[in-house]
Design a protein that fits this description.
This protein is of the alpha+beta class and 622 residues long. The chain has 15 helices and 29 strands. The strands form 9 sheets. Strands 10, 11, 12, 13, 15, 17, 18 and 23 form an 8-stranded mixed sheet that branches. A hairpin with a 3-residue loop joins strand 3 and strand 4. Helix 6 runs parallel beside helix 7, helix 7 runs parallel beside helix 13 and helix 8 packs parallel to helix 10. The longest helix is centred in the C-terminal third of the chain and has 18 residues. The radius of gyration is 24 Å and the shape is globular. The N and C termini lie far apart (52 Å).
């Protein structure tokens, strides 16, 4: 930020901070989280209650006293004390002295205010008591801290034909292989997705399991939309099955206002209900879409143990999330693992976050990188696929979700370019994946992930250390093969509200679908919590319980493609429309290197859950 630096901040200016406490014996907590999550370990699934966690690993009263005493000694006032942090405030001069960091003022590209000029230094006397310090950055900004907005809500209906499930309607256009291309699917129902992924036992409904959906803000029509949607699809909610736990304060950010998240929230809760129609759902609404607000919401989940399974359909580039907030998030995921809570996180919709592409630029990426919190070693990163369903409603094939789109020529029979198109010009979006630049390879990936992936550096070089690779697993995410979602939206003139169902996708669909799948696994196992899933999940590699997804299910010379019509004004479904060829299974080109291949890959991970998945997860091979 040197270009926006306006010099030293006034010493008398106000500043605040949250001093996050490290807890008792952090190394022992890390060991316990791994042991309790790993099959065949003597401690496997010996979970603790929140009270037991707090007593054994949580921050101590002595740590709180140390921080409070340090604050007072340095002229800072303690304003709030919680089980996890202590808030302090005071003049800039006092905070500079206490944390050995200068504060400067900044004013550039819409950002103004005060912030530390470098990373604060935790005082030596607090080294064992403090995890990190947040809240010092007081910059006002016109952009949300999470610059990557959630995946789009329900997609406006295409102005033209679509293929009913299991029946391909020829479009009259030909693809790259000379074959006639069908119109894109009309959209799958929850029942059809359960059938496609092998959930055929009518008794598997998620009954007795609670799923939490964590997101920003809360749509005022979400509960009513879920009620109507569930009724229309023959799986009505019972009284009390859905509830909301919301922030007491909503913070509207200029580029992250509440209504930009409504479609995201609606899709999340309908997807978990669609896969697990009798599971209880608790929606947890964060006060805004910043990492700190999401961490506050996640802390509610673990401190109150609101759910067994948690779906998080949001994320940010690893660089953008911020090291301090990542430390806090990881500590929450560690507490969740110890308590038997599984966190499932969308891997993102911008591929390898290539800054040369539209999605990469929109997310503020400065280099090829994976997203956070999907790349955290203690969450299950859920990637995305394009799904085809056969004539009998059964699974036909999948590719990774990576879509190119080229327009038709005026003759309405041929395409502007040779499909699939050029990168990045014709690339639209695709599942997040790749190799982490921050997190070393976790213990459960070592026997499965090829070194060519774990040691791959963005740009093609080979690193010295094996690193975390995402995603771990994948389900349908391509909006062209997505799920029907019902939402109340405003009409084009803004004078009326209208409820309608439209096809929707993104890894913010695949993530809650897999969270719902895990609720079915828990029910099948007698209701006992599963906890962090990855160590058990990776034992299924090569077992046949997980379908190995590749980008060439029809053969190397036959790319998977559909024809689709799109309005010029997609948001309002108005104006002229154009016809496109959408080719999938090609997630970027060149340096991105995201391909679904045989075995584990950096685009669909292990693959997608197959018909034998639920039983195999409960009885993993030894």
């Amino acid at each position: 930020m040197s270009g926006s630096d306006r010099g030293e901040a006034a010493e008398e200016g106000p500043v605040e901070a949250r001093i996050w406490l490290a807890g008792r014996d952090p190394e022992a907590a890390t060991r316990y989280a791994q042991a309790v999550s790993t099959p065949r370990d003597p401690l496997y699934r010996h979970f603790l209650t929140p009270a037991e966690f707090q007593e054994r690993f949580g921050p101590s009263a002595l740590q709180s006293q140390q921080v409070a005493a340090w604050a007072g000694k340095n002229g800072l006032k303690t304003t709030e004390t919680t089980a996890h942090y202590i808030s302090v405030s005071g003049p800039v001069g006092a905070m500079e002295k206490a944390l050995a960091v200068p504060f400067h003022t900044y004013d550039d590209h819409g950002r103004s205010g005060t912030a530390p000029a470098r990373t604060p230094t935790i005082p030596h006397e607090l080294a064992s008591a403090v995890l990190t310090v947040t809240g010092l950055d007081r910059l006002n900004t016109a952009h949300p801290a999470v610059a990557e907005l959630p995946a789009p809500g329900p997609q406006p209906s295409a102005p033209g034909p679509c293929s009913p499930v299991g029946k391909e309607e020829p479009s009259g256009f030909t693809g790259a292989d000379g074959r006639v291309v069908s119109w894109a699917p009309c959209g799958y129902t929850p029942e059809q997705l359960r059938e496609a992924y092998g959930v055929r036992d009518p008794g598997l409904t998620g009954k007795g399991v609670t799923i939490a959906v964590v997101n920003a803000y809360t749509s005022p029509t979400m509960a009513a939309d879920l009620e109507r949607y569930s009724h229309d699809h023959g799986e009505p909610l019972r009284p009390g099955q859905y509830r909301e736990v919301n922030s007491q304060v909503w913070d509207q950010l200029d580029s992250c206002s509440a209504n930009t998240w409504y479609g995201e929230q609606t899709k999340d809760v309908q997807a978990v209900h669609g896969m697990a129609p009798e599971a209880d759902i608790v929606y947890v609404g964060a006060r805004n879409c910043t990492p700190s607000a999401f961490n506050e919401a996640l802390l509610k989940v673990v401190d109150l143990r609101l759910a067994d399974v948690v779906s998080c359909s949001w994320g940010e580039t690893t660089d953008g999330y911020g090291v301090q907030e990542r430390l806090i998030s990881h500590s929450v995921f560690e507490q969740g693992a110890i308590e038997g809570i599984g966190f499932y996180v969308a891997s993102g919709d911008a591929g390898y976050e290539d800054p040369s592409t539209g999605p990469g630029r929109a997310s503020g990426s400065r280099r090829l990188q994976v997203d956070y919190p999907a790349s955290d070693p203690l969450v299950t990163a859920v990637g995305g696929t394009s799904l085809s369903v056969g004539a009998n409603g059964a699974y036909a094939h999948e590719t990774s979700w990576g879509q190119y789109r080229v327009a038709a020529r005026a003759d309405a029979r041929t395409w502007r370019d040779v499909p699939p198109g050029d990168y990045p010009r014709d690339w639209v979006a695709g599942t997040g994946g790749g190799t982490s630049i921050m997190y070393e390879q976790p213990w459960y990936q070592a026997p499965v992930v090829p070194e060519a992936l774990s040691r791959a550096l963005p740009g093609g070089a080979t690193g010295k250390r094996a690193m975390r690779v995402v995603p771990d697993i994948a389900l349908v995410a391509d909006p062209l093969t997505g799920m029907l979602v019902g939402e109340t939206t405003a009409t084009a003139d803004g004078k009326d509200l209208h409820y309608g169902e439209r096809r929707s996708g993104g890894t913010s669909l695949s993530c809650p679908l897999f969270a719902g799948m895990q609720a079915l696994v828990q029910q099948a196992g007698g209701g006992r919590a599963l906890g962090f899933a990855n160590p058990a999940l990776y034992l299924l590699h090569g077992s046949g319980a997980i379908t190995d997804v590749t980008d060439t299910p029809l053969g190397a010379d036959h790319p998977v493609a559909w024809t689709v019509n799109r309005y010029e004004d997609q948001a309002n479904e108005t104006g002229p429309w154009s016809t496109y060829l959408a080719t999938t299974g090609r997630n970027g080109e060149g340096a991105a290197r995201l391909r679904a291949t045989k075995g584990f890959d950096n685009t669909t991970g292990l693959g997608s859950p197959g018909a034998a998945y639920i039983g195999a997860y409960l009885r993993p091979p030894l």
